[in-house]
Write a structure and sequence with these properties.
Oligomer: single chain
Distance between the termini: 13 Å
Shape: elongated
Radius of gyration: 14 Å
Largest sheet: 3 strands, antiparallel
Order of helices and strands: EHEEHHEHEH
Number of helices: 5
Number of strands: 5
Strand order of the largest sheet: 1-3-2
Length: 112
Amino acid sequence: MKKFVTLSAAFAALAISAPGWAAPASEGSVQLSPAQMQRLDTDKNGAVSRSEYQAFMEESFAKLDANKDGHLSKSELPNNLSAEQFAAMDANKDGKISRAEFLQQVMKEYKG
């Protein structure tokens, strides 16, 4: 069974480039392969719950945060992420993406 997780347009490029994600199924969504589904579905019930998805995204943030300062700078994000997309994610406009900003954005459009 294939599952789709819809991400906001601002995070589509980030999620696709994050470890473990497949190519986009359509603009704004990511299709999980069976192996990815198995990895995210930790309770093995055939679906990725909100908590399982959040745990995966927290792990993704930690992997992207190369200098381990608790924020994502432009240099830690994929090159194909536009300045406009970065600005949209940077809710407090401090020039970096905090863990809270990251999770707020990716969880906003979670579809289970």
